[in-house]
């Protein structure tokens, strides 16, 4: 505690110095941990302990006074002296005195300037305006602290402040919870006045702190305090939570633009404060505090009758934010459910407010209520019944919402449509609903259908999705026919495209659900399907050039594609056949297949991409089905050209969709045949188009898709490769593909001039894909490549790539076996399954093993291959270089320990799983075994000398750097000490190997 007092005194003089050299939170954490080990009920020397508790509480208040100006600032994340004019800011002490929270509820209309007269600060500040972090201060500590120079960033100051505030909260909470209460009847260590004072402190911090880390941990300490108050035997203390709750509700109710309560940052700590007070109420009670609070808050959250004013908007925002926190609080359990209806009303009505802050808070509250009512997402498809409930169950649980939602739909509040559709889209009719059901969903259907006329695209789409569960399966054909008949038969001046689009979407979603439903009623000879087609055919102009709106044209094409795909066509059924002929005619006359000029070929504008994708989806269906299905000679003739047109389309979205459909079809055919490769292409496909696209595709995603398609095609259909009219041999095709892929891999840095040989390029690509910073998918792909290359490249009896590139592949494999991600390590360990049997030790069964075992077996296998290849000397040199590692480039000089280059949030090691010391010892073990191989050729003396020089340099630099570390480096510079220790031991192990080799050469 004495050390903490000294640090607080330094922080009171200079927070920058404290943040740089002796942040407060460490000592405070240690004191809290020590108190947790005490058995406070059996303490002796009560008078002395009472003084300790009093001193600790006072010390906590001093710490809070030092750091609170930062965490209560309007912008705590960037607060540092250099953010203000450095010419007039002579020191941090003056800034801490001058700066006050600026985020008043009038949105920072009153700016303050610092007083330039103070001369109290004695530190030297230097602004670094040229480095990579401009918010950086360099300070020099006084001589009594060592006079060392430190770089202090805004993040370091903030972390020091909010962590100190956190530890203060935890320490005060521990004192209140663990120390016995002093009363006239019982001698304790903490008094009622002190408990009440701590409560006032938490109240100030929770209501005024702006940094989330500070008030979240203050909430934890405050919960401990309120729990202690309720369990205490003092009537005065037991009444404090209710008293504080009434006071804060009154302050929220009366808050205005001049209030100190934070109206931004989702009301900051105010919801946490009220949560803590409500959680202290005993579960067995009548929950009177909760009921009173919810009544007050829901009344505040409702829009005022006299319109939005400054005096009503701020309390409404606070109320919405607090309600959101209470509905999310799992400790309140089912006690909060009776108030869900009122909260939903406040959220829906608040969404209509002209004030953005109210709409934003209402949206967040609505999202919380949806999760509270329907539960968390329980499936990938959010529209599945797992994430919904019946209308009967919903309105039985929340009966007040039934008349409210109906009333809102009758008012036609456009701004509320979105939220209403989100609710209605999660309901579906109950089988028990009858025509006379008082809570049935039938009254909502006209409202949902009327949303087809909305001017908001998203609203029309949500209305279409919401309508599906409201229509019974037996009523889908008649409802669909009615909707289609409401569309115009001919274009005219009064055509409303929003209405057309919304209606088509409703028909599309209804038919998709109906046509894919295996339990739909089957009518004789498809009478209902014929009725739908009969209503659809007179309106086919909506999918042609006669319709000027590309959005509705695309939706019509989607509808026709689904109808032609899912409807069965008996031999005597002429309706479906006619519809397919007319649909094919629309496709063949479209801008995608038959553009009329360059403008249509490069079609652009609102909805153009969506329209072209719809056409492409229909074209892939036509191209991949037998021509007889479409029943026209045009289909037979154009089917061969459709895919080629799609793959040559200038719009990459069309190419990507066509390639995805191709890949899906090929994979399905492979599954049907239950074999690894296709025996033949299942439909007429010009493979030359694919090979040409692979060589010239400019879009990365499309290039990846076309290569995936080519990987599943039979080899006989690929060779020889064609680039337009020119035939390429394998080497030329490989050169094109590797060069193209390598360009995408090296997009962030320039390529070197030495990458001219194709094998070297491929090896460089594999090495880059194995690095730690690569995404998981890239490393998994690299592991697959290396695993499949094991029998033909890594373990071949000859060296098809040469010893240099073969060893590079082995090194990449070992890197993946020590990767941070378990999936990558497991995938790389599969290489053991591909090792030829004659290379495995007798008695070892070839099969999957764990990554550590695969790593050890791999190094042993490589040492065995060195003997097979006759490359023992090269192997000794390579393994020794691996043993030394490349840490010398990072820690080889004291310059790397320069504090000028240290930043608080600088990215450290990406791989925390790898054990460099274990890897070095494994290599040392196999090196010692390899050095004893009989009749092994001697290593070149020049190479031994080079390795010895590296070992000596690493040893000396590690020793110098270890000496330069501060006292007790295991604790004060843990990371640097660990790296230097590993570097030194690696050098020692390598020196042992080199000594043994030199001894063998001499003998």
TrEMBL record:
InterPro entries: ARM-type_fold, THADA-like_TPR_C, THADA/TRM732_DUF2428, tRNA_methyltransferase_THADA. It holds the Pfam family TPR_Trm732_C. Residues 52-357 form the DUF2428 domain. The keyword Cell inner membrane does not apply. GO terms for biological process: tRNA methylation. Together with methyltransferase FTSJ1, methylates the 2'-O-ribose of nucleotides at position 32 of the anticodon loop of substrate tRNAs. This is tRNA (32-2'-O)-methyltransferase regulator THADA. It comes from Pygocentrus nattereri. The lineage of its organism: Eukaryota, Metazoa, Chordata, Craniata, Vertebrata. The gene is THADA.
């Amino acid at each position: 505690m004495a050390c903490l007092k000294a640090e607080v005194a330094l922080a009171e003089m200079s927070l920058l110095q404290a943040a740089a050299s002796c942040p407060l939170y460490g000592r405070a954490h240690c004191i809290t941990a020590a108190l947790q080990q005490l058995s406070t009920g059996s303490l002796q020397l009560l008078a002395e302990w009472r003084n300790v508790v009093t001193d600790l509480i006072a010390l906590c208040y001093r710490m809070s006074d030092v750091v609170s100006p930062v965490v209560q600032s309007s912008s705590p994340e960037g607060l540092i002296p250099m953010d203000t004019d450095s010419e007039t800011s002579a020191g941090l002490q003056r800034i801490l005195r001058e700066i006050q929270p600026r985020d008043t509820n009038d949105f920072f209309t009153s700016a303050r300037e610092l007083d330039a007269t103070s001369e109290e600060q004695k530190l030297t500040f230097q602004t670094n305006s040229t480095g990579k972090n401009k918010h950086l201060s360099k300070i020099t500590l006084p001589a009594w602290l060592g006079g060392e120079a430190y770089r202090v960033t805004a993040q370091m100051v903030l972390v020091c402040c909010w962590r100190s505030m956190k530890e203060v909260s935890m320490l005060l909470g521990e004192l209140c919870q663990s120390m016995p209460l002093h009363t006239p009847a019982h001698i304790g260590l903490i008094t009622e006045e002190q408990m009440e004072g701590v409560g006032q402190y938490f109240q100030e911090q929770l209501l005024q702190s702006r940094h989330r880390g500070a008030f979240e941990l203050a909430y934890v300490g405050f919960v401990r305090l309120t729990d202690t108050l309720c369990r205490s035997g003092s009537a005065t203390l037991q009444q404090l939570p209710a008293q504080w709750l009434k006071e804060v509700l009154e302050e929220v109710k009366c808050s205005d633009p001049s209030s100190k309560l934070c109206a931004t940052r989702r009301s900051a700590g105010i919801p946490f404060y009220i949560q803590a007070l409500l959680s202290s109420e005993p579960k067995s009670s009548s929950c009177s505090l909760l009921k009173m609070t919810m009544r007050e808050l829901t009344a505040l959250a409702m829009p005022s009758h006299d319109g939005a004013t400054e005096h009503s908007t701020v309390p409404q925002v606070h109320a919405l934010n607090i309600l959101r926190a209470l509905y999310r609080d799992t400790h309140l359990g089912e006690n909060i459910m009776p108030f869900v209806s009122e909260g939903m009303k406040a959220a829906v009505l608040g969404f209509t407010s002209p004030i953005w802050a109210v709409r934003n808070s209402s949206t967040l509250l609505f999202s919380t209520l949806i999760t509270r009512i329907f539960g968390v997402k329980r499936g990938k498809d959010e529209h599945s019944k797992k994430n919904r409930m019946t209308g009967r169950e919903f309105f039985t649980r929340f009966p007040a919402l039934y008349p409210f939602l109906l009333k809102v739909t009758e008012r036609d509040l456009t701004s509320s449509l979105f939220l209403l559709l989100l609710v209605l889209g999660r309901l579906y009719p109950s089988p028990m609903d009858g025509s006379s059901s008082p809570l049935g969903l039938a009254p909502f259907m006209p409202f949902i259908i009327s949303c087809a006329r909305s001017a908001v695209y998203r609203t029309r789409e949500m209305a279409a999705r919401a309508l599906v569960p409201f229509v019974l399966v037996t009523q889908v054909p008649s409802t669909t026919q009615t909707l289609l008949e409401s569309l115009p038969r001919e274009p005219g001046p009064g055509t409303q495209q929003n209405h057309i689009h919304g209606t088509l979407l409703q028909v599309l979603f209804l038919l998709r659900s109906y046509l894919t439903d295996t339990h739909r009623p089957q009518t004789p000879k498809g009478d209902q399907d014929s009725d739908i087609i009969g209503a659809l055919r007179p309106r086919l102009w909506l999918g042609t050039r006669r319709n000027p709106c590309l959005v509705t044209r695309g939706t019509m094409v989607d509808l026709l594609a689904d109808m032609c795909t899912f409807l069965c066509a008996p031999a005597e059924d002429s309706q479906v056949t006619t519809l397919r002929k007319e649909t094919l005619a629309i496709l063949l006359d479209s801008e995608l297949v038959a553009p009329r000029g360059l403008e249509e070929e490069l079609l652009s504008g609102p909805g153009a991409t969506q329209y072209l994708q719809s056409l492409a989806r229909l074209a892939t269906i036509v191209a991949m089905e037998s021509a007889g299905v479409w029943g026209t000679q045009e289909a037979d003739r154009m089917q061969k050209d459709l895919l080629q047109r799609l793959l040559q389309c200038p719009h990459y979205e069309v190419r990507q969709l066509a390639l995805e459909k191709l890949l899906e079809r090929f994979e399905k055919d492979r599954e049907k045949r239950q074999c690894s490769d296709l025996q033949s292409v299942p439909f007429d496909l010009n493979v030359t188009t694919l090979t040409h696209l692979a060589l010239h595709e400019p879009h990365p995603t499309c290039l990846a898709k076309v290569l995936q398609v080519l990987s599943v095609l039979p080899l006989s259909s690929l060779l020889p490769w064609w680039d337009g009219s020119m035939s390429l041999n394998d080497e030329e095709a490989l050169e094109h593909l590797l060069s193209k892929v390598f360009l995408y891999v090296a997009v962030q840095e320039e390529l070197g001039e030495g990458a001219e040989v194709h094998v070297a390029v491929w090896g460089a690509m594999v090495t880059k894909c194995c690095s730690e910073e690569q995404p998981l998918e890239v490393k998994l792909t690299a592991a697959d490549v290396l695993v499949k290359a094991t029998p033909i490249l890594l373990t071949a009896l000859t060296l098809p790539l040469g010893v240099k590139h073969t060893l590079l592949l082995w090194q990449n494999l070992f890197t993946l076996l020590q990767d941070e991600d378990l999936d990558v390590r497991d995938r790389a360990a599969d290489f053991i399954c591909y090792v030829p049997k004659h290379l495995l030790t007798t008695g070892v069964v070839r099969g999957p093993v764990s990554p550590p075992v695969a790593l050890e077996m791999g190094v042993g296998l490589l040492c065995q291959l060195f003997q097979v290849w006759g490359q023992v000397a090269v192997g000794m040199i390579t393994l020794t270089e691996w043993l030394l590692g490349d840490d010398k480039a990072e820690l080889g000089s004291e310059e790397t320990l320069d504090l000028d280059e240290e930043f608080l949030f600088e990215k450290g090691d990406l791989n925390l799983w790898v054990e460099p010391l274990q890897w070095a010892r494994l290599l040392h073990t196999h090196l010692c075994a390899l050095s004893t191989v009989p009749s092994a050729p001697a290593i070149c003396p020049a190479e031994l000398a080079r390795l010895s020089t590296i070992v000596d340099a690493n040893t000396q630099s590690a020793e110098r750097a270890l000496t330069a570390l501060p006292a007790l480096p295991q604790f004060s510079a843990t990371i640097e000490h660990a790296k230097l220790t590993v570097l030194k031991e690696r050098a020692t192990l390598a020196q042992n190997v080199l000594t043994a080799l030199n001894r063998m050469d001499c003998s």
